[in-house]
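# step 3/5: fold
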Amino acid sequence: MPQTSGERSRRPWATIVGLIFALGWPLLLAALIPSQNLQNIRQDLTVGVAEWMSVVVLFGIVVFWERLPFFSTVGLTMPKRRDIAIVAWLALLAMGLCAFLATQHVTMSAKHSIL
């Protein structure tokens, strides 16, 4: 049940730790990986894994420390058929647009083709 403004959180430390982690880990990550080289695949993989691990940590704080149902806590509900259809249509549209743009790109012309 959502809390009203007059109620106090039963586990305020979980909220404080979660907020500090969510707002502070990007600074820590930037300090650990100072050179932002977009061509370094290992660095990109490290950043991606760190970002997903932060999601796992925050999920753990909500579910195991605060003992709250995760999806309703963040305002998510079970998707309806219409929602799934809209997402599928948008995904197909995005894939089609990406395919079109990839074939129209300058580097994909016959002059630069590797085929």
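# step 4/5: annotate
DSSP finds four helices and no strands in the chain.
# step 5/5: archive (pending)
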